[in-house]
Amino acid sequence: MRTVEETVQARLILSPHRSVRLRVVLSYLPEDPLAVRMAFPAEFSLDEDAEGPDAGDIVWVFGRRLLSAGLELPSGAGDVHVRPALGRRTMVELRAPEGTALLQFDSGDLRRFLWRSRLLVPEGEEHLHLDADRALAQLLG
User: Fold this and answer.
1) Could you tell me the pLDDT band of residue 121, with boundaries at 50, 70 and 90?
2) CA distances, 103 to each of 1, 13, 107, 125 (Å)
3) CA 102 – CA 123 distance, rounded (Å)
4) With 60 as the cut, is the pLDDT of residue 14 above it?
5) What are 105's strand-pairing partners?
6) 85-111 average pLDDT score
7) What per-residue confidence (pLDDT) applies to 25?
8) Is 10 exposed, middle or buried (0-12, 13-18, 19+ CB in 10 A)?
9) With contact defined as beta carbons under 8 Å apart, do 105 and 92 qualify?
10) pLDDT at 2
């Protein structure tokens, strides 16, 4: 089954007057139809154990509907919050025990990614792509 993967630029907000640009890989897997993934280079991790030459990308997994809703209205509870910002931007806030990361994306990049994901699995049809046995095996695995 195909996947959707898109590399976009984001800004990691360090302070009100300082940010750094970073590459973020967005991915959508039809076999996990309710989720999207955001992968960040390990050097941007707040977890000191995740850094180093052998460290892979840091991957956050959260609801596709959360990302979609956050383009229009502040959305989210728990570790991931998404909200629209001025100038066709979208803010994604990721909360972990090590700290909080605030990222700014171009809303058009996120909309294009979501549109491509919906070509594979339309919203409302996610249940047709769920494999309950595989999901249970992953949970118990």
Assistant:
1) confident
2) 30, 6, 12, 30
3) 27
4) yes
5) 10, 90
6) 95
7) 97
8) buried
9) yes
10) 87
DSSP state of 126: G
pLDDT for the residue 46: 57
Which amino acid belongs to residue 75?
Answer: S
- The encoded tokens of residue 62 equal 């959260």
Q: Are 114 and 98 in contact (CB under 8 A)?
A: no
Name the pLDDT band for 101 (thresholds 50, 70, 90).
very high
Query: Is the distance from CB of 84 to CB of 70 less than 8 angstroms?
Result: yes
Q: How far is residue 5's CA from residue 25's CA, in Å, rounded to a whole number?
A: 7
Question: Does residue 70 contact residue 81 with C-beta atoms inside 8 Å?
Answer: yes
DSSP string for residues in 44-93: G-S-GGG-STT---EEEEEEHHHHHHHTTS-EEETTEEEEEETTTEEEEE
Residue 124 amino acid letter: G
Write out the H or E segment, with its range, that includes residue 109.
helix 107-120
CA–CA distance, 113 with 127 (Å, rounded to integer): 20
The tokens of 111 are what? Answer: 């909309």
| Amino acid letter, residue 23 | R
Given pLDDT bands bounded at 50, 70 and 90, which one contains residue 56? confident
